[in-house]
Please model this.
Amino acid sequence: MLTAAADWTARANRAEDYERYLVPAYFGPFAEALVAFAAPWPGERVLDVACGTGALTRRLAQRIGQSGHVTGLDVNADMLAVARGLLHAPNVDWREASALAMPFADGTFDLVTCQQGLQSFPDRAAAMAEMRRVLRPGGRLALACWRSTDFNPVWKLLEEALGRLMVPAATVLPPLALGDADELRRLARAGGFTDVAVRIDGRLARFPSPGEFVRRTVLGAPTMLRALAAADADAHRRLVDEVTRTMAPYVDDIGLAVPLATHVLLAR
Model:
């Protein structure tokens, strides 16, 4: 059911909405896959960059065990507050800092991970260089970036609907802004990494309806759809009517099925 505009915008804690709506649909399932790709060992020191509310960090902590240590780093204090509330353990540390200037000595970590964060950094090259700096010689990097909307068809339908109904700026979907595998490889190599390999990974996310898909995205990631988050109830209704029509081929007896595709980059 579509809720009032106030329910889309006047929220006390966006980080809680992110954890409630987006982690189960997107970041939790993909975190499991990224941990499998990264293959952390018990006892390793791991840094999770742009950790958000800790969907990936929590899984890393399970893998490295009490003999290891994982640090979740994020610039958003609200995200970290939710993360701390969900996991407080002796082998986990939460740090508020920018990925462009990490408060760690050179060569501190065995493994650095970053799930859907690189594309949002204001200076991707600097962030990649920082991730390389804090890794020990031979250390590993495992990061994920969504593929473009050409490979995420439901997101493409949302993008097209925004273009028809909203101002042009509303069509920009920042999380899908680094969907080119060659650009990912170039950034990694320029940052000092070798043995660079990019894989394609895919999952299916579920939402009760196209309207709920839009609403939960606005609640959990308002910066992704900034113009829509600031729009009135009439704009919300028009957009939901439009995506309900265009996303009909992806609706089954359970609800909306959202095919998702990401790149996973592994490097040393």
Remarks:
- The beta strands are 45-49, 69-74, 92-96, 109-115, 135-146, 197-207, 256-267.
- The domain at 5-267 is CATH 3.40.50.150 (Rossmann fold).
